[in-house]
Amino acid sequence: CEDEEIPYTSYPVGTIKKFATGVGNCSKDDMVEAANEAWEKKFTVKDNENEVDARWVAQLAFDDIGD
Asked: How close are the terminal C-alpha atoms of the chain, in Å?
């Protein structure tokens, strides 16, 4: 992105966790629980933890920078 002068942003892990749960040092289980409350799909830590993280990052970016 920098080489091509494409704007981008990044978020610290604590910021993502706080956005998702209100607590910056929450557990993976807390992130999954918050995802299950936010979205209809039911997630499990073993099977979907990477998807949960990706969805929270996407939601944070959408809320932060809009469409």
From this structure: 19
- Cα–Cα distances (Å) from 66 to 2, 52, 58, 60, in that order, read 21, 20, 11, 9
CA distances from 27 to 2, 11, 22, 37, 42 (A): 33, 17, 12, 16, 17
If you count them, how many residues does the chain have? 67
Is the dihedral angle over the CA atoms 15, 20, 22, 24 positive or is it negative?
A: negative
pLDDT tens per residue across span 35-53:
999 988 888 777 777 889 9
Closest CA relative to residue 52, chosen from 66, 31, 21, 30:
31
pTM above 0.85, yes or no: no
